[in-house]
Amino acid sequence: MRKTCKLEDLDCAHCAAKMEIAISKIEGVLEAKIAFMTQKLTIEADEKDFDRILKEAQKAIKKIEPDCRIVL
Amino acid sequence: MRRKDKKQLIRIIISAISLGIIVAIDKLWGFPISLTLWGFDLFPLIAYLIPYIPVGYPVLLSAGKNIAHGQVFDENFLMSLATIAALVTGEYAEAVFVMLFYQVGELFEHIAVGKSRDSIKSLLSIRADTAFVEDEDGNLDEIDCEEIKVGDIITVKSGGKIPLDGVIVEGRSSLNTVALTGESLPRAVEIGDEALSGCINEGGVLKIRVTKPFEESTVSKILALVESSAENKSKSEDFITKFARVYTPTVVILAAFLAVLPPVIICINDSGIWREWVMRAMTFLVISCPCALVISVPLSYFGGIGAASKKGILIKGSNYLDALSHCDTIVFDKTGTLTKGVFSVTEIKCGEGVDENELLSLTLASEKYSTHPIAAAIRRFGEENSYAPSPEVSEIEEISGLGVKAQYQGEILLVGNDRLMRESNIDVETVSPGVGVYVALGNRYLGSLALSDKPKDNAKTAISALFEQGIIKTVMLSGDKENEARRICEALSLNSYRAELLPSDKVSALEEIMKSSEKLCAYVGDGINDAPVLARADVGIAMGALGSDAAIEAADIVLMNDNLEKIGDAVALSKRTRSIVIQNIAFALSVKALALILGALGIVGLGIAIFADVGVAVIAILNSMRNLK
Questions:
Q1: Is residue B542 classed exposed, middle or buried when 0-12, 13-18 and 19+ CB atoms within 10 A define those classes?
Q2: Are A14 and B290 an interchain contact pair (Cβ–Cβ within 8 Å)?
Q3: B68: which residues sit within 8 A by CB, 6+ positions away?
Q4: Does the predicted TM-score (pTM) go above 0.90?
Q5: Which end of chain B is more exposed for a tag (fewer CB within 10 A), N or C?
């Protein structure tokens, strides 16, 4: 399934591209896309993995842009 | 301005003022005190740290955090390294200036991005999140739209937005569809008419029976479409993010060589030479920041998509906007796209000894129940010219694809196309131009009616506008007869046409056109029966899609109304966006390349380097935002 969430305080376009790559590498993620202008993160993955993936995605995001948070 | 930005602004002001004071003291009078340690005066360093810390501290902190996370080539780190090196080598004022300017650029960038995000949001603030529902006592309760079910009756006050799609059950009004279609002409509605969410009720109070849940209502769909458009990235966007990924590490490595190699070769023991080359390397670090490049491209496309949605043109991604700018051929569907899609009777020819009244009354009676558009057109013509259907026609039977068969005074009455007549061995005089409806009673030919579809009023100007936009070929696909297709094609000055196509032939016809065109090919249709063609084209444009889910689904670009001139607008916008993107990329790359060369030669220092980074970003952002206006 696909899920879209908002990214708060996503300020750096280059970081968004880095985050996209980092999140794509999380186990179970089929596709991850970040739209910098709309501050949206879309993840495609199996439903049962979602909670874990979102936690790992938040970690990956923090590493790249410390202020940026996933808002559901 | 967000709180975060305000804090940053305060830091910048403090830093700028204190820098000014300290530079003035330093240059005009010299520092009065000195603090010598190992034969080195520490006082200027301490003095310059006063303006450095407010702007430098957040950058240093993020740099530290990111290094701990393994993010080495990050902007914060590059800026920290460059400014610290400048401080260590005694270029105090430059170090502060670089950090200050970097922060100004960042702030500007955030404000600009925030602004354009807001302008898109306000553009899309066409959704009402609550609806009014009357309770038993006649009071209006404000209820969250998501809780409203299909079949509920909602009340929309005068001046209010229609929150959910529905049908009007009480009241009459005019609806302003400008938010959906970009067209400001209000639409008059009354009981039984459809009311689409996103329209503004400009007249009296309306009661609407909801026909679609909130998330499936028109306005929610449009919002979802525009918001997800940023995910479909264009090639230029991909190029620039990939480029940035290689560019930054490459420049940093070059900087490392630049700092070490020349001093080692020239004179390893001369501290002056070391200082010189380390500073040159630092200019490289400053120039290596990728953000100016990376931000300007999506910002330009986003501006283009935003400006388009203001005009009722929804674009599903920057890749499609880009593709449209590369189109040289536009293929049109005929009926409903180039033409009004409404047939009207243009000529009546009676057979020998038949009067018009007799011909019409028999035709009208036979076509009384048919839902075919031709039948509807004949009935409309009958009403307008007050012909009455003959009551003696009975046993009406529709023969699919041919016409109608009925009984009249004991004889067989046939009303239909030339094939129906041929099958019954009746000679007819073929109607041209237009579509012919022939009438025969028994084996006697009574006459014919010619019907035709008219081009839309602005079709011709819209087509010539496309040629002005650089489209070199326009082609029409039609299911009509050769002569009818040619007539429309000539009337609209299209380059060519393909006639007598079955719906299933249209895809292969389009493919042939695509093969023969040099660049890309767009297809414009109504999305109702040509979804496969829309999907096959390089860019599929659906017209008059307001309220049609199938069209919105199938197309890449959706025109909310059926105004052909919007296609020219979309093409113009795509070209403008494309040229802004190219300008930004070319400008940023050439300034950076120039700054790198001059920096390596020692001609420019950190001050110019920071301009190559921040100044370029600011200019590129301003350029991108032109599109939103």
A1: buried
A2: yes
A3: none
A4: no
A5: C
